[in-house]
Amino acid sequence: MSALQFSREELVNVYRTMRTIRRFEERVMEEMGTGDIPGNTHLYAGQEASAVGVCLQLRDDDYISSTHRGHGHSIAKGVDIDSMMAELFGRASGTCGGKGGSQHIADLRKGMLGANGIVAAGAPITCGAALSAKLLGTKQVAVAFAGDGAMNEGVMSESFNLAKIWMLPIIFVIEDNGFGEATANAHVSAGSFTRRAESYDIPTIEVDGTDVFSVYAAAGEAVERARAGGGPTMLHVHVPRYYGHYSGDPDTYRTPEEKAAMRRERDCLTHFRTRVKEVSLVEMTELDAVDEAVEAEIDRAVSAARAAPFPPLAALTTDVYVKYL
Questions:
Q1: CA 71, CA 51: separation in Å to the nearest integer?
Q2: Using CB atoms within 10 A of its CB, is residue 254 exposed (0-12), middle (13-18) or buried (19+)?
Q3: Three-state secondary structure call for residue 19
Q4: Which helix (H) or strand (E) holds 159?
Q5: What value does the mean pLDDT of the chain take?
Q6: How many CB atoms are located within 10 Å of the residue 29 CB?
Q7: Element at 245 (helix H, strand E)
Q8: Burial of 159 (0-12, 13-18, 19+ CB in 10 A)
Q9: Are 67 and 130 in contact (CB under 8 A)?
């Protein structure tokens, strides 16, 4: 896939979404230092091209599930950043009324089934969404984002099995940053992730997650297969992780030189700028203007979150159970 296959407007929109994710994450890291965001956050910065490349191929009514590192997936699927920021600040105007926090952002109106603090828990949930789409004949597709650590959970194998047996319209997107929390893959993961999925006769595609155009092309192939009744696909996406596993992680298991090289050589936003400049499709000044607009948008989201009320005490026990009658 080449930048030449996108219109100028589409390229600017791709860049705007990736830049919004990046600045959202950087600002959250800054605000964590003030103590006004309760709990911990798990930042997605560095992996923007994966979420954006996949979600560009989805319809509004398609489903995604996420991990504990879910801000990027939510923004790429179209969840409102004002509501997301308010959720992180624990305010009543948040996506979950301020009671879910960073690890539980969900917006069913956007097909965002939820971030999840339990490793690999999104995979069976997404199988359920894909099963409903198949039974109802809606042609919707479901995407289960998961990290490399999820591949060593038993429920992941169960989800692969169900997805193939039932030929579900689902895509498993494994975002592999090389570490499960602070443990390198080589110490805990035997064999190949793609061969594991292939053992269930699930097609796989391995892709560079710093190249939004490659991710978009791979996701397009998987989505087309799913909508046509061809069943599941697994994308093995190689991505960097700029921050530690969580916001308080001292991140001493990677050297400063490794982290600096990662940002210098594997930055998806820098790669994007280089690619579109080579084909002269977008002026760099246009992208600079996007940067300024995104900065202002994030500023407004933070200000609105700080000004919003906390949920009332009476809301403490609401939304705990779903009422069907």
A1: 10
A2: middle
A3: helix
A4: helix 154-165
A5: 95
A6: 16
A7: none
A8: buried
A9: no
Query: Under DSSP, is residue 20 helix (H, G, I), strand (E, B) or coil?
Result: helix
Q: What is the pLDDT of residue 94?
A: 97
The C-alpha atoms of residue 206 and residue 234 are separated, in whole angstroms, by: 9
Sign of CA dihedral 26, 27, 30, 31: negative
Q: Output the six-digit token pair for 79.
A: 């969840």
Find out whether 202 and 234 touch, Cβ atoms under 8 Å: yes
Residue 260, φ and ψ in degrees, nearest 5: -65, -40
Two tokens, residue 155: 């429920």
241-262 pLDDT, tens digit each: 999 999 889 999 999 999 999 9
Task: List pLDDT tens digits, range 72-127.
Answer: 999 999 999 999 999 999 999 999 999 999 999 999 999 999 998 999 999 999 99
CB 266 within 8 A of CB 204: no
Residue 325 has pLDDT above 60, yes or no: no
3-state SS class at 267: coil
